[in-house]
Fold this protein.
Amino acid sequence: MDTYRHEIIVAGGGFTGVAAAVAAAREGRDVLLVEKSGFLGGAATNCLVNPFMNYFCKDMETGESTPINRGFFEEILNELKAMGGLHENKRTFNEEYLKIVLDRLCAKYNVKVLLHTIITDVIKEGDRITYLEAYSTGQKLKLAAECFIDASGDANLAALAGCDFQLGREEDGLCQPMTLCLRIANITAKNIRELRPYMNEMFNKLQAEGKIKNPRENILFFEHMSEGVIHFNTTRIIKKNPTNPFDLSYAEAAAREQGLELLNFLKEYVPGFENATLIMTAAEIGVRESRKVIGEYVLQAEDLLECKQFEDSVARGAYEVDIHNPSGTGTVIKRLPEGKYYTIPYRSLVPLKVSNMLVAGRCISSSHEAQSAYRVIPIVCCIGEGAGTAAAVFVENKNGAMKEVDIKEVQRRLTKHNALY
Ligand SMILES: Cc1cc2nc3c(=O)[nH]c(=O)nc-3n(C[C@H](O)[C@H](O)[C@H](O)COP(=O)(O)OP(=O)(O)OC[C@H]3O[C@@H](n4cnc5c(N)ncnc54)[C@H](O)[C@@H]3O)c2cc1C
């Protein structure tokens, strides 16, 4: 088995992983980013998740809303905009351009990228990971480093390393539903938002008659960069475990059936959809929530809703608690006070039991309710940036454990790169 050695290895090339890899590499570290798909972007490309959820916060004195997820996320936005891949609403984006932007940014910062490579095992000595085993193109690889960042979304590395985790919600382990996003084209309706009440009324009527199986309470859709195309985030697969391969496989097929059901409904009942065509379902069903690692601090929804300012903060967020019902119909929303934001403490990225690994992105140490808020793309991107910067400081200072990293130094470096924490 060939061995490849780097200072830092990042597992997972979603927004979290790319941000972590770039943040560590721009500090001069030798970084390998490992991704199982053929492109970067994670849920934003693989699962067609769109648009970026709220990354603005209102200044109560001026009344102006300004971005609070900045740093590397802002660099991505600028590159997308320059390519014509960002809508004027600043949230809708073209994921094909995004793939190119992320390739280019990794190249710019000298991140070594390994695509089509799946990490299959974690080899430890005591509480330290010494190397990962991976598989790609008919061969096994050994990937060694001084420290590791688990940005796999599902906390796959942490699970393989024997870390404790909470799956789904605390009372029964159920995760937020999985959703297969899809795109429908050839829509001639001029203002689809005006049709929303009628669409939902008809959808609910047919649900009550048992003619629509999808348990979602309404049709969730967003505009798309192309004319006549709408992005639907409407399928809902409940009570299935995204870390169980059989449940996941069931979910993919069941969600495709829901997608077809939605298309047929729109064509039959909604004016302007008569010639609608299903042009694309995502390559993978979207997983909102699965494992959340147990770390030095378990972030709570109260910390977010009360806008707690942690001293060891590495990122900010302004997105609300947003729980799609894990067991059926309905969505719980709890908003932040206007003009306020919360912070993400470094300790929630530090798992118990493994000393040279951080966990970043949607699987950090938190409650089910807290996860529903910080999981969105702009925030996980900033969490990744914080994790990568901390990993660089860990390697430079030859720290014994991730929890010993000088967080004030991490914060100084984040400020240098225009990131807010
Ligand atoms: C249906 C749905 C709708 C959403 N809607 C929105 C929205 O509108 N706006 C918004 O901002 N956010 C939204 N979110 C949330 C957001 O998309 C995700 O939480 C976020 O993208 C997670 O980013 P991440 O980098 O942490 O993980 P991911 O994007 O999941 O990236 C993890 C990466 O790790 C890779 N990986 C996993 N295991 C391995 C392994 N063993 N070896 C190698 N690679 C591996 C995966 O292939 C993947 O690319 C939504 C999520 C879902 C599922």
About this structure: The mean pLDDT is 97. The CA atoms of residues 4 and 254 lie 40 Å apart.
